[in-house]
Amino acid sequence: MNIPNRITLSRIFLIPIFIILLTIDLDWGSWTIGATTLPIDHFVAALIFILASGTDWLDGYYARKYNLVTNLGKFLDPMADKLLVTAAYVLLIELGSAPAWLVIIILSREFAVTGLRIVAAGEGLVLAASPLGKWKTTFQLLSIIFLLLHNYPFSYLDFPMGQVLLYIALILTVISGVDYFIKNWHVMKESK
């Protein structure tokens, strides 16, 4: 197994640690930041999430730079991304930081696009992510990070940065999903 695929696997292995930090009451205490209380386990979970998100960039960079793109990597990388984002958004619902209806829309788009990619792969086609999709991912990751951090450092300004980023992520998710299906609808029409 090459290094980019090992990096991707490390992202997958970080997910259970992330989940444990947010679901088990570890009673590590909390910090009071302005009017906000930030549990230390949420802070550590945010750091784990940032690390895991960073591995997505690192494995892709390494695979392209050294021409180590493999079929295993093409499978593992998007799966790891979806697992990480899905776990984070579902846990944010449980924590009361994200509305369920919004997360359902975001995750529905992710599964629909994954389904389209599977159909395309069956036809021997690879559907690349668009720049709009990359912006969507960026705002999804940023929204998760700020929600996990209880809007720190914007909590000093009493500004709900995590919520603002979450709604921007929602808008970009819908627009990029519609764009993706319009550009690639021929795959569905031509599939056998």
TrEMBL record:
GO CC terms: plasma membrane
Membrane topology: Multi-pass membrane protein
Keyword Membrane carried by entry: yes
Gene Ontology MF terms: CDP-diacylglycerol-glycerol-3-phosphate 3-phosphatidyltransferase activity
EC number(s) given by UniProt: 2.7.8.5
Parts of the chain that traverse the membrane: 12-31, 43-62, 83-107, 163-182
Cross-referenced InterPro entries: CDP-alcohol_PTase-I, CDP-OH_P_trans, CDP-OH_PTrfase_TM_dom, CDP_ALCOHOL_P_TRANSF_CS, Phosphatidylglycerol_P_synth
Catalysed reactions, semicolon-separated: a CDP-1,2-diacyl-sn-glycerol + sn-glycerol 3-phosphate = a 1,2-diacyl-sn-glycero-3-phospho-(1'-sn-glycero-3'-phosphate) + CMP + H(+)
Keywords: Cell membrane, Lipid biosynthesis, Lipid metabolism, Membrane, Phospholipid biosynthesis, Phospholipid metabolism, Transferase, Transmembrane, Transmembrane helix
PANTHER family: CDP-DIACYLGLYCEROL--GLYCEROL-3-PHOSPHATE 3-PHOSPHATIDYLTRANSFERASE 1, CHLOROPLASTIC (PTHR14269:SF62), CDP-DIACYLGLYCEROL--GLYCEROL-3-PHOSPHATE 3-PHOSPHATIDYLTRANSFERASE-RELATED (PTHR14269)
Similarity comment text for this entry: Belongs to the CDP-alcohol phosphatidyltransferase class-I family.
Name of the molecule in the record: CDP-diacylglycerol--glycerol-3-phosphate 3-phosphatidyltransferase
